[in-house]
Amino acid sequence: MNPADVDTGRDLSPAQVDRRRRILDAAVELARTGGWDGVQMREVARDSGVALGTLYRYFPSKEYLLVSLMHEQVTGLAERLAVRPPEGTDPVERVSDVLRRANRALLREPSVTETLIRALVTGGPAVAPAVAGVRDLMRRIITDALGLGTPQGEHIDPQEAIDLLTDVWLASLVSWITGIEPPERLVEKLSGAARFLFGAGPDEA
Q1: Rounded distance between C-alpha atoms, residue 1 and residue 9, angstroms
Q2: 8 Å CB contact between 195 and 91
Q3: 88-108: average pLDDT
Q4: Which of 74, 67, 199 is nearest to 139 (CA)?
Q5: What is the pLDDT of residue 59?
Q6: Is the per-residue pLDDT at 69 higher than 60?
Q7: pLDDT for 150-191, tens place per residue?
């Protein structure tokens, strides 16, 4: 079984999709009630009704499982944005709206979000493909929100600016779950970064 297929649920049979769904639902519930320590692979297998060996064929580690769950949550954000596009008359306003909506969804269940972000930053090389999938999806969401927006400064490559903003988003989430900054600072910091990279230049201010 290709881990990339399990990450996204593509190219799986209906029975496999159902099994994957039960596994992810069980992991969410365990994270909701017990946080990071509450998500144990044996308990995930028990609660989802699959054998432990089967669980490991789908998700080779706890971190891989949780990062795949993060990918699903960000995919949900992308789908909601397709139905209700980000609001704003310029790229910075649209990106800020996306980040505000994303963070609002994440903050509804802080225990789950803290568990997922912890997996995202501690998974190690074995989880790198799943982490890359989450980062690429976040990057596409920001790219779509920017539309025709271009970064300030002739020496700033647009793709590098988007990468920087994606990294700021992830770093801000880490700052929140580690207690460095309160959650209300997330949107403020991200909007400031978007304005710095894509806001009006000196001649337009």
Answers
A1: 11
A2: no
A3: 82
A4: 74
A5: 94
A6: yes
A7: 555 555 677 788 888 888 888 888 888 888 888 778 778 888
Highest mean pLDDT, choosing among 43-47, 145-149, 166-170: 43-47
**Tokens 């999806």 sit at which residue?**
137
DSSP character string of the chain = --HHHHHHTTT--HHHHHHHHHHHHHHHHHHHHHHHHH--HHHHHHHHT--HHHHHHH-SSHHHHHHHHHHHHHHHHHHHHHHSPPP-SSHHHHHHHHHHHHHHHHHTSHHHHHHHHHHHHH--GGGHHHHHHHHHHHHHHHHHHHTT---SSTT--HHHHHHHHHHHHHHHHHHHHTTSS-THHHHHHHHHHHHHHHS--TTT-
In the chain, the amino acid numbered 73 is: Q
Q: Which two tokens stand for residue 64?
A: 């891989």
Sequence-separated (6 or more) residues with CB below 8 Å from residue 116: 31, 66, 67, 69, 70, 73
Rg (CA), the chain: 18
The span from the CA of 138 to the CA of 71, in Å, is 9
Q: Look at 198 and 20; give whichever has higher pLDDT.
A: 20
